[in-house]
Amino acid sequence: MRRLAPILLAGLLCCQLPAAPDARALSLPARWLQEYLRLDTTNPPGNEQRAAAYLERLLAEHGVASRRLVSPGGRASVAARLQARPGVDGPAILLLHHTDVVAAGPGWHHPPFGGEVRDGRLFGRGALDDKSLGVAHLAAFLAVARERPVLRRDVVLLAVADEERGSREGTEWLLRAHPELFAGVEGVLNEGGSNRQVNGRLLWWGVEVTQKRPLWLEVATEGRGGHGAGFNPRSAPHELIRALDRLVSRTPRWRVSGAARAYLRSLAPLHNDSWRPLLTDPDRFIVPQGPKGAALLPGMENLFLDTVQVNVLAAAAQINVVPPRATARVDVRLLPDTDADALLAEIRQLLGKDVELTVLLSGPPVGASSTTSALHGVVASVLGAEAPVVPFFSPGFTDSRLFRQRGIPAYGVSPFALEPQDLLGIHGADERIPLAELDRGVERMERIVRRWAQATPP
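^ thats the sequence. predicted structure below, dont judge the formating
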C-alpha cells in the first residue's frame, strides 16, 4: 500500500522494549509471518508465485482447498472460500491482502528478508505492509473453517499480486477476469486502517472508509545526445529539470473536502480544547493559501492538498554521456472530489508544450463506504470494546477503491495497535511488528470474522 507517515501523531515517543523471546516460543501466526517475510516478493518483479505456493500449503495443511489465479503477465494470486451451511443464503465477506512488497532500500539494521526476531519485534519487509494483515486474515479464516457447521455467511480469503504497482495484474485483473470470486460479496476488509496509540495508550481505531485517488504520471523530454564533454544546454535532462522545476514550484491550493471534514469532526471529541475548534470547523481555518490562525498536527496537511511528488528520475547510465531522452515519474494524490482533468490540464501547461506527458494510473471519484453497513457494525463492535472507532480518511490509496467503484463497501482495518516509532517502518527501513501485538491483532481479527460469519444475515 502507498502510505505517508502516520498523520495526527501525538508525538514520536520512546518506550522500553521487551526482551526478545526465544524463537521456539513464537505463536503459530508469528511463525507463519516469519516464514512469509523470508519470501522476497519485491515488486517489481513481484515473484508472487512464491507467496502463492506458501499460502496454498498452509491452507492445504488445514484441509482447505484453494485456487491459484495467474494473470497474463504471470502474476499469481490465491483465493479460497468457506461456504455457509446448507440452506443458508447469506452475503459474503472478502478478506483481502496483497503479497507483493516495495523494495527494501538502504538503512536496514536487520536483513529485510531474514525474518529476524529482536527485542520482541519481528523484522522484515512486509511486516506491516501487508503480510501481517494477511496472516491475521489467514488465522481468522482457518478459525472459521473449523466451525463450518455454524456458518451463516460465506468467507472469502484473497491474497493478490501487484498492489504496490497499481494492481493491474492483481485485484483489477481478478475483478475483470474472475467475477465468480466475488459472487455475493457484501463487504471487504482490507489494509488502510490507521490507529492511534501513544506510550501504550490506545486513543482510537481508524477504520478507513475513503481515500485519496491516484494520478501517476510519466514526464519525458528529448534532446540531442552525445558526449558529456560537449556544450549542450538544451539536452533532454536539462529540459526535464526545467519542466519539473515549474511543476514542483506550483503554488498549492488548500481546501477542505467532504471526506476531510467528516474525518476531523469525528476526531474532535477525542482531542482537548486547544485542537477542537480546528477539528470541529476546519473550513474556518483552512483557506486556499494555507492554514490561517491554527497550527496543524503532523501530517495533517495531506488532508487538504492535492500533492505532487517527483519520485523517479532516469537519464544516462554514466556521467560522460548525454542521453537523447530523460524521464521522471510523478506521484500525484488527488483529494476525493478533485477534478482530475482540470488538474491534469494545469500540469500540462506548467510542463510546457514540448514535454511528453503520459498518465500511468488514475482513479475516478468514488463515494465513501457506509458506516451504517452490517460489516462496519461488526468491526466497530469488536474494536470499540477497547477504544473509540472513527471513520478514517486516508491520504494513501489501496485496492479498496476498486470495490467502491463497483458499489461494494470496503474498509481498511488494521487490528494492530502500534506505537508511532513502529509505524515509521512502512515503506521505510527496519520494518517490524511487535510480536505481542501481532498475536493480539490476530485474536481481534478472529473475533471480527467469527462474529460476521456466525451472525444471522439481516
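DSSP finds twelve helices and 20 strands in the chain.
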